[in-house]
Amino acid sequence: MDLKQYEQAKFSMAELIRSAQAVDTQDQGLLSASRDLLMRLADDRFNLMLVGRFSRGKSTLINAILGAAHLPTGILPLTSVITTVRYGSRTQVVLNFIDRQLRQEIPLARLAEYVTQQSNPGNVKNVAYAEIELPVELLRRGVFFVDSPGLGSAIAENTQTTERFFPEADAFVLITSYDSPLSDEENRALYRIRGTDKTLFVIVNKQDTVDENERQQVLDYVKSQLERFSFQRTPQVFSVSAQKALQAKQAQEPDRVVESGILQFEEELLRFLIEERAEAFLSNMYDRIKDFLLERRNLEKQIERRPVYELLLDRLRELREPEGEPSFAEGRHYATEDVSAQISLELEQRSGCRICGEVLDAVFHFLSKHQYDLVINREAQREHATRGGFCSLHTWQYENISSPYGVCNAYPELAHRMAAELQNVAARGDGPAWTTEGITHLGGSQDTCQVCQVRVEAERKAVEEGVIALQRPGASLNGRLPAFCLLHLAMVVGHLGKGQTAETLLSAHAQFFERMAEDAQRYALRHDALRRHLTSEEERRASQLMLLMLASHRSLCAPWNVQTLF
Question: Could you tell me the strand order of the sheet in which 46-51 lies?
């Protein structure tokens, strides 16, 4: 199991709870109990709290784990403000205030204005906590980094604020350093952490400032000091250079990443998240759902519905014990999800698909010009009438950018022609025209519609240009490829033929469709659990984006195109 599989397990539980809700939609007790379970699933988050003196490198360590310099470093000691790092569709900071409910969004570059003693002395701006939102894959799985105010600064409230948050933490990372390991303030924090009975990781940072002999002496000292606290589970100690780890990841130098010591910590952190914390959460939810279903099944008024609950209990057992699933401890290797190492897709802003966007532009530009010609140009009106007008789809697109005055100038010629044609059909009394199909063909179709011809030509050109761009050397070196809807992906891959470029493009789209599905599942779960305020921008857009990428933009979906989608 990895974090992705863990999340899918939660989605499967949510589906089962929804099935239970549907047993009797009028039963308020059933709806209330099932909603409570959904709320527990939706609220699931892992608070990893970082504790240590100021200037120990907490922000640098978070940056190193996330693989990029997202958080500002080197700023003055924090005021009495907890700063969390969570997932967001775009990089920003959301400020929560003590004296008002409204939240304020600011750029990350302005964070110091609200969380430093210099710009916010004594927290006169009443910031309760700051949430840094980053589009990083690890955070998308429910991991929250909690960057606490530095211990031992001149601001007494800092230590109090940090300690008040201890009960909210799921695990702790104490960050000390080789220049002055385990200060008095950090030792005091260790006593408080021990009382929480939560998992603790200890990192000795800045290993690049000492030689091998000094390093071992400090590590031995730290381990001996930890023994004095009599933790139920002995904390693991890691030697790290967060700065070197960050630099190595940014430079994509794996050997230097290993030398920094960060991988050992990441491996153990992910093992803890999956083997201990995630399994404990799923096991707890399994028991809660089982008790819920058994209680409903055993109610006297539910006798006629007992077979349904038995089926739901069987489904729950299948979720708990899937066939052929290896145990969590069988030779499992853990690694943080590095989204930067994957090929991602660059979405066209309006339509998702790059080619859909180019075709939309071509159609709009043609209609913008042609609707003017239809008002003033007699020859354009005659040709329009001869063709039977536009097809149904493009008739209404024309209407969107035209006006009643424009239509009343452009369409009388077509209406007169249609009257004559229908009169001819009525007078003839038999023959091919005297059929549903014959009458329908009097109007515009794909074969006669001028806009359809523009659309087809624009689509052909966009596909060819897209293929040429993809075949250029180093086309995906920046880690991004254009996104295509299913119809246009088929066209592009058909032109590319078998090969590495097509395989990379298909793999990137497979990851993207998987991501859309997960965003949709999160949205549905948070919607059912009345937790819509927790949804990200991507989750809110998932329903529209899925349809765009599966069926192309609605302005391009004429009936004859829909038939070719699948």
Answer: 104-106, 92-97, 127-134, 82-87, 143-147, 46-51, 171-177, 199-205, 236-239
